[in-house]
Amino acid sequence: MTSQAQTALNLLAEEVVGCERCPRLLAWREQVSRERRAAFAQQEYWGRPLPGFGDPLARLLLLGLAPAAHGANRTGRMFTGDRSGDFLFAALSRAGLANQPISRDRVDGLRLKDVWVTAVVRCAPPANKPTPLERDTCLPWSVRELGLLTEVRVVVCLGAFAWDGALRLRAALAGSDAPLPRPRPRFGHGVEVGDGAYRLIGCFHPSQQNTFTGKLTEAMIDEVLRRAQEIAANSA
Ligand code: SF4
After folding, report:
1. Which domain holds residue 60?
2. Which residues line ligand 1 (CB under 6 A)?
């Protein structure tokens, strides 16, 4: 089961990495990779779309917005190589969902257990702002990815954009005619919505803007992960 799921996910990852559906993002990710930030001038940037990664049998899915230009777009692994990732993987480690609190590059030895990390949009967008068309163009990758992650029961949505993406993802997985829920459930830290196949939990995004100002503390993200694990444990 594990190897079959991993093989299918590996094949999907190869497809994702070759995706060129969004011309604006294709140009931006390549421009950033050419110009580079001074601190990383000697490094070769990934500069391509990013597949998700983690445990193929995960019950928890962590959903972010999109790769950061000089973080995941540089290292080639979601949330790896920037302050957001430092905060997130430290939390995963405290929760027993990661074997180490540090995430520097694709060969740093990080292993996730019972969690899969991915994003609504898989290419770094200018100003961290994908367009609605780019969001919708990328969503089918997440539909396919989640379709292969058969054990997922809880989606932890990191920020309002991920929350919106997760609602769209649930609707897409429910069937092509399934509408988005109305009224649309509002994003909030700790807010939960949904039953059936997936439960969604909101969590403020672990960006520096939130973690440096105390809007998102270690205790707050720890509680969200504890709750997600509790739901997963109680789900059939
Ligand atoms: S954002 Fe998604 S759909 Fe658009 S080019 Fe990147 S991987 Fe492809």
Report:
1. 2-234
2. 16, 19-22, 25-26, 49, 121-123, 134, 137-138, 141
Closest residue by CA, ligand 1 atom 3: 138
Residue 84: is its pLDDT beyond 60?
yes
Total domains, the chain: 1
Residue with CA at minimum distance from ligand 1 atom 6: 123
Strands (E), the chain: 53-54, 60-64, 115-119, 154-158, 192-193, 199-203
Q: Is the pLDDT of residue 208 over 60?
A: yes
Q: Which two tokens stand for residue 61?
A: 């899915």
CATH number at residue 217: 3.40.470.10
Whole-number Å distance between alpha carbons of 151 and 142:
15
pTM for this one?
Answer: 0.95
